[in-house]
Amino acid sequence: MQAGTTLSQRYLIQEVIGVGGMGSVYRARDLHFPNVVKLVAVKEMINLAPDPLVRQTIVQNFEREANLLATLNHPSIPRIYDYFSQDDRSYLVLEFIHGKDLESIISDNDGFLPEAQVLTWGIELCDVLAYLHAHKPDPIIFRDMKPSNVMINHNGDVILVDFGIARTFQSGVKGTMIGTEGYSPPEQYRGEATPLADIYALGATIHHALTRRDPRLEPPFSFAERPIRKINPAVSAELEAVVGTSLQYNIQDRFPTAGDMKDALLAAGRKTGALSQMPTVSLPGSAIKPLWTFTCEDEIRGAPAIHQGTLFIGSYDNNLYAINSADGKFLWKYPTDRGVVSRPAVYEGNVYFGSEDNRLHVVGARSGKVVWTYFTEGPVRSSPRIAEGHLFFGSDDHYIHAVNMNTGRAAWKFETTSPVRSSPFVANELVYAGNESGDFYAVDFRGVMKWRFQAKRAITSSPVVAGQAVYFGSMDGAFYALDARNGWTVWRFRLGKGSIVSPAVTENIVITGAADGFIYALDTQSARELWRFRTEHQVSGSPVIYRDSVYCGSADGVIYCLEYRTGRLRWKFATQGAITCAPLVYDDIVYVGSTDHNIYALLA
Amino acid sequence: MLEFFKKIFGNKSQPRESITTAPLSEAQLQSIISNTAPRYDIQQLLAACGQSVGKQRDLNEDSLLAITATLAGNGGNTPFGLYIVADGMGGHQYGEVASNAAIRIVAGTVMRKFQPYLFNLKPEPPNESLQEIMQGAANEAQKVIQREAPGSGTTLTAALILGQQVTIAHVGDSRAYMLYSDGRVETITRDHSLVKRLEELGHISPSEAENYPHRNVLYRALGQGELLEPDIFTIPFPTGGTLMLCSDGLWGVISEHELARAVRDAPTLQRACLNLVAAANLAGGPDNISVTLIQLVG
To answer: A587 vs A584, A591, B202, CA distance in Å?
Structure first.
């Protein structure tokens, strides 16, 4: 198919990304998501068999693959979105994997891959094999484990692709030889395939990755004649022994299950210390590239908002920008008289945001034309929150403002003792916000104070209410969890330095950062530190949790993607200036502004 | 009638066996449950206690305390409660002295912090966090026990309730349970006992643990060791649930299933406590029995 073809009035073909035995694999854009670029992989199977019985078998094979894949749910197995047949062709629509297959990684690399890296992938492959082998009612044998069927995605995690021949294994049934010579074990040549065949092929794959010797070019079952450490002396004896066991000729001499092989790999990694090196992704040629960048005329210090395919973000060049979130194209800008740091809020076709020109601006989301403005007596650096038909935001005029969205008039103003730069949080019919002299307030919907709390220094951090507690940091170096109903301190955690970071909460974990340069993860029940991650400068950006990652920028100019349960670095991307805002993650894309004047769109 | 409705409404949708949904985690469930709590009712605590020396001991080395109150203030009435179970270590000298001291010192320290709020109108919440107050009280008790009854030790499981927050301080092998309204029973504390540790490390199975010879050996206790590291955490009081603190004289002989049933079937909390104590005695009563049950209503 040519690039530009639209399949099933939905999938716009972009390019060929692979050629298989039965047809090609394409990268395509799913047009059902017109405002964002949602990429999918489309696997095409051309059915040219003249014999109708054979044709039928081919279609059945294809549908079996589709149905098998659809029942699987594992991070290392691509998700299936759709399948359909058209004329003499059948199509499978799959998750598009941003990454590179292991075979290319091996051949594109001049030297040997680091042991710790190969070990980590080996462990992940054991995990997915264990998942397949545990499939009910019958185990699934992958049967074609080899480097070219292992994708390494942009997070450095493995994804198993090409399930064309993975077949539910029925004990005692002899199948035909499917698999790849060199990687397949002896019994598979006799038509037998058990979970132990996958273990052998995984051993062969690891052997290939560690030695760079392609087993397809060698006599079958000759791994014993090519000891790993003879070819690559940097590999530990422990790992060599594990690979040796998995490559045993007799099936009873191999690891009995993928789980046992994983345990052996983990033990080897612990013994040699390879696992503690925490291999991070540094794949050759896979540096993170933005999908697009957009440049303003001055620093970006505030967070963006997205609505119906349009990204809204303020800049210190005084403008609010509307940008097409799919391609970064400029749509319109709206000028205020001073810098814009407030995060816009979008509601029913209008964009609401504050400016240092003392006003809250309301602008049409499509037109970019002013609808109304609301004056305060000081710069508005706080971001508006929308609840119950009102806007709640703070101003440097010391007030928390509640503005009726229909009339544009103040419903009430609540006076505090100093500028309010923290963005209010609305929950439990209360409005929560801190101010620059360290007071923290809970105000009800009539503008009457419910309770007040005093920290020792400024609370610029925007609070988050989760469960029964309200969480925020302070410049006094403490991170607080207060009872959201009565303001009693449930616990506080001592940070290395003060914090202006607005926390993110998920399950029982709260994530924040501080001027000591660390991103912290704390247990919300016990206040115990779960992990901390060092950045190169003050953490001034706020974290955002998306799926199982946390995204956070630092004054070192880098946006970090960490596994939120462990703090393991997945990837990082360096901008040319400090990051002081929270990123926005939407539909697998991270949008982040930097004081280098740019906003970047990155793959999550 | 049911059959009739099934006939009319049943089998409309295809069975979808292959679709499974991930079960919600405990935390998610709790936050959903707690967030749907009614807002305007006046909440209050109900509590009851039960104690027995058991059938095989002459001396009661358990100590128990329950204080139920309401903090009246500007922000409305806030339920306040302090509940403590301490089990003096048998075989040690003065086990009852240690458990007694633990109760008195912990309760005394905590109540002194709250006295201004119970009896005066004080607008500002205290400077210390609830967890710091509990930590401080446990440390204070540790010091006193080491001074007044050196060599002795006790467990401590204390629950401070303020509003809907339950802050637990825990050392040893007394336990706190949450009995949820849907019948689930969750042990919210972790035993600091050798047998539990071995079980956690996978050296022995749960069934082996039940018959383990040194079941009573603790690796952490109040009064023992240089540094005290109590487990301290805060959880929301689950709507419609019951909090239970008890010594091993109860949980050692009564299964979780029986615990839940005893509480569910009793007409009042006080009756539930008496039934639990009676059941433990019926099961042999090998040790002192202490139990307190707490509900947050409204």
So the answer is: 10, 11, 42
Contacts of B269 (CB under 8 A, 6+ apart): B46, B47, B48, B242, B263, B293, B295
Between CA B197 and CA B204 the distance in angstroms is 9
R_g of chain A, CA atoms, integer Å: 28
pLDDT < 70 positions in chain A: 20-22, 164-179, 191, 274-287
For residue B269, give the CATH number of its domain. 3.60.40.10
**Total residue length of chain A:** 604
Residue B140 lies in a domain: yes
Confirm or reject contact between B132 and chain A (CB < 8 A). Answer: yes
Contacts of A486 in chain B (CB under 8 A): 75, 78, 125, 162-163
Reading the block at residue B144, the tokens are 């006193």
Q: Give all strands (DSSP E) within A115-228, no chain letters.
A: 140-141, 150-153, 158-160, 167-168
Q: What angle is formed at CA A282 by the lines to CA A154 and CA A78, rounded to 5 degrees?
A: 20
Q: What are phi and psi of A106, to 5 degrees?
A: -65, -45
**B233 → closest Cβ in A454, A469, A526:** A526
| Residue-wise pLDDT tens digits, A162-181 | 776 444 443 334 444 456 77
Neighbours of A75 (CB within 10 A): 16
Task: Examine residue B7 and state whether it is found in any structural domain, yes or no.
Answer: no
- Please give the span between the terminal C-alpha atoms of chain A, in angstroms, as a whole number: 29
Gap between the Cα atoms of A149 and A159, Å rounded: 8
User: Which residue has tokens 């894949």?
Assistant: A69
- Spatial contact of B169 and B158, defined as CB atoms under 8 Å apart: yes
Distance of CA B34 to the CA centre of its chain: 19
pLDDT averaged over every residue in chain A: 87
| Strand positions, DSSP E, A87-195 | 89-95, 99-101, 140-141, 150-153, 158-160, 167-168
Q: Is residue B206 part of a domain?
A: yes
Q: Are B247 and B174 in contact (CB under 8 A)?
A: yes
* Per-residue pLDDT at B149: 80
Domains with residue ranges and CATH for chain A: 6-95 (3.30.200.20), 100-277 (1.10.510.10)
Residue B106, min C-alpha distance to chain A (Å): 18
pLDDT band at B31 (very low <50, low <70, confident <90, very high): low
Task: Decide which of A373 and B127 is more confident.
Answer: A373
Nearest to B45 by CA among B72, B82, B84: B82
The pLDDT tens digits for B263-280 are 888 999 999 999 999 999
Question: Buried (b) or exposed (e) across A560-584, using 16+ Cβ within 10 A?
Answer: bbbebeebbbbbbbebebbbbbbbb
Question: Which segments of chain B are extended strands (E)?
Answer: 44-52, 62-73, 76-87, 156-162, 165-171, 175-179, 185-187, 231-236, 242-246, 289-297
Pair of tokens at residue B255: 């299964």
The helix (H) or strand (E) run that includes residue B30 is: helix B26-35
Identify whether the C-beta of residue B35 lies closer than 8 Å to the C-beta of residue B75.
no
Interface predicted TM-score (ipTM) of this complex, two decimals: 0.74
Q: Does B88 touch chain A (CB under 8 A)?
A: no
Tell me the shortest Cα–Cα distance from B25 to chain A, in angstroms: 8
Residue of B27, B30, B75 with shortest CB distance to A451: B75
Task: Look up the domain containing B253 and give its range.
Answer: 42-297
Task: Give contacts of A507 with chain B, Cβ < 8 Å.
Answer: 25, 27-28
Element (H, E) at A107: helix A102-108
Name the DSSP letter for residue A456.
S
Query: What is the tally of structural domains in chain B?
Result: 1
Structure tokens at B75: 């922000």
Compute how many other C-beta atoms are within 10 angstroms of the C-beta atom of residue B249.
Answer: 29
Chain A environment of B18 (Cβ under 8 Å): 70-71
Integer angstrom CA distances of residue B264 from A333, A338, B188, B238, B251 = 64, 64, 19, 16, 17
* Domain annotation covers residue B287: yes
